[in-house]
Design a protein that fits this description.
The structure holds two protein chains of two kinds.
Chain A (H helix, E strand, L loop, with lengths): L2 H12 L3 H21 L8 H27 L2
Chain B lengths: L12 E3 L2 E2 L2 E2 L2 E2 H20 L9 H21 L7 H17 L12 H23 L13 H16 L1 H33 L2 H5 L1 H37 L6
Antiparallel strand pairs in B: 1-4, 2-3
Helix pairs in contact in B: 1-2, 1-3, 2-3, 2-8, 3-8, 4-6, 4-8, 6-8
The chains are: A mainly alpha, B mainly alpha.
Amino acid sequence: MDVAAAKLIGAGLASIALVGAGIGIGNVFGSYLTGALRNPGAAASQQTNMFLGFALCEATGLFGLVVALIILFAF
Amino acid sequence: MKMNPMEQFEVKPVVPIHIGHYDLSFTNQSLWMCIVVGLASLVLTLAVLNPRLVPGRLQSVAELGYDFVANMIRSAAGEDGLVFFPFIFTLFIFVLFANVLGLLPGSFTVTSQIAVTFALACLVILTVLVTGFAVHGIGFLKLFVPKAPFVLLLLLVPIEIISFLTRPISLSVRLFANMLAGHTMLKVFAGFVIALGGAGGALAALSVAPMFLIVAITALEMLVAFLQAYVFAILTCIYLNEALHLHEHH
Protein backbone atom coordinates (compact mmCIF):
# COMPACT_ATOMS: atom_id res chain seq x y z
CA MET A 1 0.00 0.00 0.00
CA ASP A 2 1.55 3.31 -0.95
CA VAL A 3 1.79 6.25 1.38
CA ALA A 4 -0.87 8.36 -0.32
CA ALA A 5 -3.51 5.64 0.04
CA ALA A 6 -2.56 5.02 3.65
CA LYS A 7 -2.82 8.73 4.35
CA LEU A 8 -6.35 8.88 3.00
CA ILE A 9 -7.43 5.85 5.02
CA GLY A 10 -5.82 7.27 8.16
CA ALA A 11 -7.55 10.61 7.70
CA GLY A 12 -10.88 8.89 7.25
CA LEU A 13 -10.40 6.81 10.39
CA ALA A 14 -9.36 9.84 12.44
CA SER A 15 -12.55 11.66 11.45
CA ILE A 16 -14.61 9.03 13.30
CA ALA A 17 -13.77 11.04 16.42
CA LEU A 18 -16.43 13.54 15.35
CA VAL A 19 -19.12 10.99 16.29
CA GLY A 20 -18.27 11.74 19.91
CA ALA A 21 -18.61 15.46 19.25
CA GLY A 22 -22.05 14.91 17.75
CA ILE A 23 -23.29 12.85 20.68
CA GLY A 24 -21.83 15.27 23.21
CA ILE A 25 -23.30 18.39 21.61
CA GLY A 26 -26.69 16.71 21.32
CA ASN A 27 -26.44 15.82 24.99
CA VAL A 28 -25.60 19.39 26.01
CA PHE A 29 -28.46 20.99 24.14
CA GLY A 30 -30.87 18.20 25.06
CA SER A 31 -30.13 18.63 28.75
CA TYR A 32 -30.57 22.39 28.42
CA LEU A 33 -33.94 21.91 26.71
CA THR A 34 -35.10 19.37 29.30
CA GLY A 35 -34.15 21.69 32.12
CA ALA A 36 -35.62 24.75 30.41
CA LEU A 37 -38.95 23.04 29.85
CA ARG A 38 -39.16 21.98 33.48
CA ASN A 39 -38.04 25.30 34.91
CA PRO A 40 -38.41 28.09 32.35
CA GLY A 41 -37.47 30.77 34.87
CA ALA A 42 -33.99 29.35 35.30
CA ALA A 43 -33.40 28.84 31.60
CA ALA A 44 -31.92 32.25 30.77
CA SER A 45 -29.31 32.07 33.51
CA GLN A 46 -27.89 28.83 32.17
CA GLN A 47 -27.50 29.96 28.57
CA THR A 48 -23.91 30.98 29.27
CA ASN A 49 -23.08 27.51 30.55
CA MET A 50 -24.84 25.94 27.61
CA PHE A 51 -22.70 27.81 25.09
CA LEU A 52 -19.56 27.07 27.08
CA GLY A 53 -20.42 23.36 27.18
CA PHE A 54 -21.15 23.35 23.45
CA ALA A 55 -17.83 24.98 22.60
CA LEU A 56 -15.78 22.66 24.81
CA CYS A 57 -17.57 19.60 23.38
CA GLU A 58 -17.04 20.78 19.81
CA ALA A 59 -13.37 21.38 20.58
CA THR A 60 -12.79 17.76 21.59
CA GLY A 61 -14.29 16.54 18.34
CA LEU A 62 -12.23 19.02 16.36
CA PHE A 63 -9.03 17.71 17.98
CA GLY A 64 -9.77 14.48 16.09
CA LEU A 65 -10.25 16.49 12.89
CA VAL A 66 -6.89 18.18 13.45
CA VAL A 67 -5.26 14.73 13.69
CA ALA A 68 -6.89 13.84 10.37
CA LEU A 69 -5.55 17.02 8.76
CA ILE A 70 -2.07 16.43 10.20
CA ILE A 71 -2.08 12.94 8.69
CA LEU A 72 -3.20 14.30 5.33
CA PHE A 73 -0.97 17.32 5.01
CA ALA A 74 2.00 17.02 7.33
CA PHE A 75 3.36 13.59 6.49
CA MET B 1 -8.22 23.84 -12.58
CA LYS B 2 -7.56 22.01 -9.35
CA MET B 3 -9.53 23.44 -6.46
CA ASN B 4 -7.80 22.91 -3.16
CA PRO B 5 -9.81 23.90 -0.08
CA MET B 6 -6.59 24.25 1.90
CA GLU B 7 -5.14 26.86 -0.40
CA GLN B 8 -6.90 29.69 1.45
CA PHE B 9 -4.65 29.10 4.47
CA GLU B 10 -1.37 29.64 2.64
CA VAL B 11 0.73 32.44 4.06
CA LYS B 12 2.02 34.42 1.10
CA PRO B 13 4.39 37.38 1.25
CA VAL B 14 2.84 40.70 0.24
CA VAL B 15 6.03 42.74 0.62
CA PRO B 16 9.07 40.42 0.48
CA ILE B 17 11.75 41.48 2.95
CA HIS B 18 14.84 39.30 3.24
CA ILE B 19 17.55 40.32 5.69
CA GLY B 20 20.49 37.94 5.45
CA HIS B 21 19.11 34.43 5.83
CA TYR B 22 15.89 35.56 7.52
CA ASP B 23 12.57 35.86 5.80
CA LEU B 24 10.95 38.88 7.43
CA SER B 25 8.39 39.44 4.67
CA PHE B 26 5.24 41.36 5.33
CA THR B 27 2.82 38.53 4.62
CA ASN B 28 -0.92 38.47 4.00
CA GLN B 29 -1.24 37.31 7.61
CA SER B 30 0.60 40.41 8.85
CA LEU B 31 -1.59 42.55 6.59
CA TRP B 32 -4.79 41.10 7.99
CA MET B 33 -3.56 41.38 11.57
CA CYS B 34 -2.92 45.06 10.90
CA ILE B 35 -6.42 45.37 9.43
CA VAL B 36 -7.96 43.64 12.47
CA VAL B 37 -6.14 45.85 14.96
CA GLY B 38 -6.74 49.00 12.90
CA LEU B 39 -10.45 48.34 12.45
CA ALA B 40 -10.99 47.40 16.10
CA SER B 41 -9.15 50.51 17.30
CA LEU B 42 -11.04 52.70 14.82
CA VAL B 43 -14.47 51.38 15.79
CA LEU B 44 -13.86 51.57 19.52
CA THR B 45 -12.23 55.02 19.34
CA LEU B 46 -14.97 56.47 17.16
CA ALA B 47 -17.56 55.05 19.53
CA VAL B 48 -16.38 57.11 22.50
CA LEU B 49 -15.07 60.17 20.62
CA ASN B 50 -18.06 62.34 21.58
CA PRO B 51 -19.59 60.46 24.47
CA ARG B 52 -23.11 61.34 25.54
CA LEU B 53 -24.85 60.39 28.76
CA VAL B 54 -27.62 58.72 26.77
CA PRO B 55 -25.50 56.80 24.27
CA GLY B 56 -25.98 56.82 20.53
CA ARG B 57 -25.85 53.56 18.58
CA LEU B 58 -22.11 53.10 18.19
CA GLN B 59 -21.39 54.17 21.75
CA SER B 60 -24.08 51.74 22.88
CA VAL B 61 -22.35 48.90 21.06
CA ALA B 62 -19.03 49.71 22.69
CA GLU B 63 -20.67 49.96 26.13
CA LEU B 64 -22.44 46.64 25.60
CA GLY B 65 -19.15 44.97 24.72
CA TYR B 66 -17.48 46.55 27.72
CA ASP B 67 -20.25 45.44 30.09
CA PHE B 68 -20.33 41.97 28.58
CA VAL B 69 -16.62 41.38 29.21
CA ALA B 70 -16.71 43.04 32.63
CA ASN B 71 -19.62 40.81 33.74
CA MET B 72 -17.85 37.76 32.38
CA ILE B 73 -14.74 38.55 34.39
CA ARG B 74 -16.77 39.34 37.51
CA SER B 75 -18.68 36.07 37.37
CA ALA B 76 -15.69 33.89 36.50
CA ALA B 77 -12.88 35.50 38.47
CA GLY B 78 -14.51 37.72 41.09
CA GLU B 79 -13.98 41.43 41.72
CA ASP B 80 -10.19 41.18 41.99
CA GLY B 81 -10.11 39.62 38.56
CA LEU B 82 -11.06 43.01 37.15
CA VAL B 83 -7.36 43.95 37.32
CA PHE B 84 -7.03 41.86 34.16
CA PHE B 85 -9.85 43.64 32.36
CA PRO B 86 -7.65 45.41 29.76
CA PHE B 87 -5.87 42.16 28.92
CA ILE B 88 -9.02 40.09 28.58
CA PHE B 89 -10.92 42.81 26.69
CA THR B 90 -8.04 43.15 24.22
CA LEU B 91 -7.88 39.37 23.80
CA PHE B 92 -11.62 39.11 23.28
CA ILE B 93 -11.81 41.99 20.81
CA PHE B 94 -8.78 40.76 18.84
CA VAL B 95 -10.05 37.17 18.53
CA LEU B 96 -13.60 38.36 17.74
CA PHE B 97 -12.56 40.79 15.02
CA ALA B 98 -10.05 38.31 13.58
CA ASN B 99 -12.68 35.57 13.42
CA VAL B 100 -15.41 37.79 11.98
CA LEU B 101 -13.18 39.53 9.41
CA GLY B 102 -12.11 36.10 8.19
CA LEU B 103 -15.68 35.53 7.04
CA LEU B 104 -15.36 38.20 4.36
CA PRO B 105 -14.92 36.51 0.96
CA GLY B 106 -11.33 36.73 -0.16
CA SER B 107 -9.92 37.56 3.26
CA PHE B 108 -7.41 35.68 5.36
CA THR B 109 -8.42 34.37 8.77
CA VAL B 110 -5.64 35.30 11.14
CA THR B 111 -6.75 32.85 13.86
CA SER B 112 -6.76 29.90 11.46
CA GLN B 113 -2.99 29.72 11.85
CA ILE B 114 -1.81 27.58 14.76
CA ALA B 115 1.16 29.93 15.14
CA VAL B 116 -1.12 32.84 16.01
CA THR B 117 -3.45 30.95 18.34
CA PHE B 118 -0.59 29.18 20.07
CA ALA B 119 1.11 32.52 20.67
CA LEU B 120 -2.09 33.87 22.23
CA ALA B 121 -2.51 30.75 24.37
CA CYS B 122 1.11 30.91 25.53
CA LEU B 123 0.52 34.55 26.47
CA VAL B 124 -2.49 33.51 28.56
CA ILE B 125 -0.69 30.68 30.33
CA LEU B 126 2.36 32.84 31.04
CA THR B 127 0.05 35.47 32.55
CA VAL B 128 -1.58 32.78 34.71
CA LEU B 129 1.77 31.42 35.89
CA VAL B 130 3.27 34.82 36.64
CA THR B 131 0.09 35.89 38.49
CA GLY B 132 0.02 32.67 40.48
CA PHE B 133 3.62 32.91 41.57
CA ALA B 134 3.38 36.65 42.24
CA VAL B 135 0.28 36.33 44.45
CA HIS B 136 1.05 33.08 46.24
CA GLY B 137 4.78 32.61 45.88
CA ILE B 138 5.84 28.98 45.90
CA GLY B 139 2.45 28.15 47.49
CA PHE B 140 1.01 28.36 43.99
CA LEU B 141 2.05 24.73 43.59
CA LYS B 142 -0.74 23.84 46.04
CA LEU B 143 -3.02 24.23 43.04
CA PHE B 144 -1.96 20.77 41.93
CA VAL B 145 -2.72 19.15 45.29
CA PRO B 146 -6.48 18.78 45.76
CA LYS B 147 -8.05 17.63 49.03
CA ALA B 148 -7.76 13.86 48.87
CA PRO B 149 -6.28 10.93 50.82
CA PHE B 150 -2.54 10.55 50.33
CA VAL B 151 -2.75 7.36 48.25
CA LEU B 152 -5.03 9.08 45.76
CA LEU B 153 -2.69 12.07 45.66
CA LEU B 154 0.09 9.92 44.19
CA LEU B 155 -2.17 9.46 41.17
CA LEU B 156 -3.91 12.85 41.23
CA VAL B 157 -0.92 15.21 41.34
CA PRO B 158 0.63 13.97 38.05
CA ILE B 159 -2.83 14.08 36.44
CA GLU B 160 -3.36 17.65 37.64
CA ILE B 161 0.06 18.74 36.40
CA ILE B 162 -0.47 17.14 33.00
CA SER B 163 -3.93 18.66 32.65
CA PHE B 164 -2.49 22.09 33.51
CA LEU B 165 0.29 21.72 30.95
CA THR B 166 -2.15 20.74 28.19
CA ARG B 167 -4.18 23.93 28.72
CA PRO B 168 -2.25 26.08 26.23
CA ILE B 169 -2.51 23.29 23.69
CA SER B 170 -6.26 22.81 24.12
CA LEU B 171 -6.87 26.56 24.18
CA SER B 172 -4.96 27.15 20.95
CA VAL B 173 -6.13 24.05 19.08
CA ARG B 174 -9.78 24.72 19.95
CA LEU B 175 -9.72 28.13 18.27
CA PHE B 176 -7.51 27.01 15.40
CA ALA B 177 -9.52 23.87 14.59
CA ASN B 178 -12.86 25.66 14.71
CA MET B 179 -11.68 28.33 12.28
CA LEU B 180 -9.93 25.80 10.04
CA ALA B 181 -12.89 23.41 9.88
CA GLY B 182 -15.43 26.15 9.21
CA HIS B 183 -13.51 27.77 6.39
CA THR B 184 -12.56 24.44 4.81
CA MET B 185 -16.23 23.45 4.78
CA LEU B 186 -17.16 26.73 3.10
CA LYS B 187 -14.48 26.22 0.43
CA VAL B 188 -15.54 22.61 -0.20
CA PHE B 189 -19.14 23.65 -0.80
CA ALA B 190 -17.98 26.47 -3.02
CA GLY B 191 -16.11 23.83 -5.01
CA PHE B 192 -19.37 21.88 -5.33
CA VAL B 193 -21.15 24.96 -6.71
CA ILE B 194 -18.45 25.43 -9.34
CA ALA B 195 -18.34 21.73 -10.22
CA LEU B 196 -22.12 21.48 -10.60
CA GLY B 197 -22.34 24.73 -12.51
CA GLY B 198 -19.62 23.66 -14.90
CA ALA B 199 -21.30 20.32 -15.62
CA GLY B 200 -23.96 22.10 -17.65
CA GLY B 201 -27.57 21.17 -18.33
CA ALA B 202 -29.82 20.06 -15.50
CA LEU B 203 -26.92 19.87 -13.06
CA ALA B 204 -26.20 23.55 -13.52
CA ALA B 205 -29.65 24.37 -12.13
CA LEU B 206 -28.89 22.16 -9.13
CA SER B 207 -25.85 24.25 -8.32
CA VAL B 208 -28.11 26.58 -6.32
CA ALA B 209 -28.48 23.93 -3.60
CA PRO B 210 -24.87 24.04 -2.34
CA MET B 211 -25.16 27.83 -2.55
CA PHE B 212 -27.97 27.82 0.01
CA LEU B 213 -25.86 25.54 2.16
CA ILE B 214 -23.01 28.04 1.96
CA VAL B 215 -25.36 30.76 3.21
CA ALA B 216 -26.50 28.56 6.11
CA ILE B 217 -22.94 27.56 7.00
CA THR B 218 -21.81 31.20 6.89
CA ALA B 219 -24.54 31.98 9.42
CA LEU B 220 -23.26 29.12 11.59
CA GLU B 221 -19.71 30.40 11.18
CA MET B 222 -20.73 33.82 12.44
CA LEU B 223 -22.10 32.19 15.59
CA VAL B 224 -18.94 30.10 15.91
CA ALA B 225 -16.74 33.19 15.43
CA PHE B 226 -18.41 34.98 18.34
CA LEU B 227 -18.63 31.83 20.46
CA GLN B 228 -14.96 30.92 20.06
CA ALA B 229 -13.88 34.42 21.02
CA TYR B 230 -16.16 34.21 24.07
CA VAL B 231 -14.90 30.73 25.04
CA PHE B 232 -11.27 31.84 24.71
CA ALA B 233 -11.91 34.82 26.95
CA ILE B 234 -13.94 32.98 29.56
CA LEU B 235 -11.43 30.13 29.83
CA THR B 236 -8.73 32.75 30.36
CA CYS B 237 -10.87 34.19 33.18
CA ILE B 238 -11.33 30.74 34.73
CA TYR B 239 -7.59 30.00 34.62
CA LEU B 240 -6.83 33.41 36.13
CA ASN B 241 -9.39 32.69 38.84
CA GLU B 242 -7.52 29.51 39.69
CA ALA B 243 -4.26 31.44 39.86
CA LEU B 244 -5.71 34.23 42.01
CA HIS B 245 -7.82 32.13 44.38
CA LEU B 246 -6.31 28.68 44.44
CA HIS B 247 -9.16 26.39 45.37
CA GLU B 248 -11.33 28.73 47.45
CA HIS B 249 -14.99 29.03 46.65
CA HIS B 250 -16.67 32.45 46.62
